[in-house]
Design brief:
With 110 residues, this protein is mainly beta. Helices cover 0% and strands 44% of the residues. Strand 7 and strand 8 form a beta hairpin. The structure holds zinc ion.
Length: 110
């Protein structure tokens, strides 16, 4: 996945097109993400337990990751991302894969 929990994304397709939000949940198995406050759906709930209220509940519905673009935290543009290897990234000299912004070339992951 090119995006993950905590990323700010721009929605590029669907009814929320053009809006930005933060990913509150990533669902890698389904290639979907939930963006805070976007793609709300109304659920009509039936009271299931005694004392519990029924009614209409608003929830954020997952969006397919192909419909979102990462907003680069460095340059602020909705950007395509790539992966690259940082050689000897940790104290043990192991390489690590990080995402980078194709607009400004900054590494997105620390
Ligand atoms: Zn950038």
């Amino acid at each position: 996945m090119h995006v993950k929990k905590g990323d700010e994304v721009l929605v590029i397709a669907g009814k929320e097109k053009g809006k930005k939000g933060k990913i509150s949940l990533a669902i890698p198995a389904k290639d979907r993400v939930v963006v805070e406050g976007l793609n709300k759906i109304k659920r009509h709930m039936r009271p299931r337990a005694i004392g519990q209220m029924g009614g209409i509940v608003e929830q954020d519905a997952p969006i397919h990751i192909s419909n979102v673009m990462l907003v680069c935290p460095k340059c602020g543009r909705a950007s395509r991302t790539g992966n690259r290897l940082i050689a000897a990234a940790d104290s043990k000299g192991r390489a690590r894969k990080v995402r980078f912004c194709k607009s400004c070339d900054a590494n997105i992951d620390e």
